[in-house]
Amino acid sequence: MHVAIVVFEGFDAMDAIGPFEVFGHAREEADLEVGLYARGPGGVVSSHGLRVEPEGTLGELGSRPDVLIVPGGGYNDRAEAGVRAQIKGPLSERVREYHAAGTLVASVCTGAMVLAAAGLTDGRPAVTHHGALADLRESGAAVREARVVDDGDLVTAGGITAGIDLALHLLERLVGAGVAVSVADTMEYERRGEVLID
Q1: What is the pLDDT of residues 135-194, one digit of tens each?
Q2: DSSP string covering 160-181, please?
Q3: Residues ≥6 apart with Cβ < 8 Å to 173
Q4: What residues does 159 pair with on adjacent strands?
Q5: Are 72 and 81 spatial neighbours (Cβ–Cβ below 8 Å)?
Q6: Fewer beta carbons below 10 Å: N end or C end of the chain?
Q7: Catalytic residue flag (residue 109)
Q8: Is this model's pTM higher than 0.85 or not?
Q9: Catalytic position from the list 44, 69, 106, 109
Q10: What is the pLDDT of residues 125-152, one digit of tens each?
Q11: Kind plus residue range of the DSSP H or E element containing 133
């Protein structure tokens, strides 16, 4: 299983690195590959100044990933960099293409607004950071009050640390409950909040 996590200028570090850590710990127990991918070459800087060097670009992925995770960042602050810039750029189109090709698309926090811009949340159950719930609802999503919302090929999570719960849920669903429990134990993380499976 190949998990690709998107990073871009102004992304929220925990939104991306939390799931990366979860899937990274699972590599020893499951046949999976995880990497950070940007739209273009070179490093990117998170909303709080963490500089990361992605494994590659989305264009270099070759075959489509099994899972694509889109983080949030800067949306509620109306930052120039971050999700608002990505909504206006080509990321939404790329996400739509992967989804149409069969990739399970997931978001953490306000990354759901990128999915909304791609038309993926229209009429579907979804969640985002509490500060963007009204915008997500206005975009046409059927907003749910849950930490993680699983609607089959579309899985969304609430704010920031909910990305860890999203990744553990995806591990449990796609690889097995034993692996998810083992990773949570290794990370000393207590899963919290409701996972709503629609």
Answers
A1: 999 999 999 999 999 999 999 999 999 999 999 999 999 999 999 999 999 999 999 888
A2: TTHHHHHHHHHHHHHT-HHHHH
A3: 150
A4: none
A5: no
A6: C
A7: yes
A8: yes
A9: 109
A10: 999 999 999 999 999 999 999 999 999 9
A11: helix 133-138
Place of tokens 């849920």: 169
How far apart (Å, rounded) are the C-alpha atoms in residues 96 and 185? 35
Rounded CA separation 76/55 (Å): 28
State which residues form the domain around 30.
2-197
CATH number at 92 reads 3.40.50.880
CA atoms of 12 and 187, how far apart (whole Å): 20
Number of domains in the chain: 1
Instruction: Please say whether the beta carbons of 78 and 132 come within 8 A.
Output: no
What is the C-alpha to C-alpha distance for residues 87 and 75, in angstroms, rounded to an integer?
A: 10
**Token pair for 194:** 């409701």
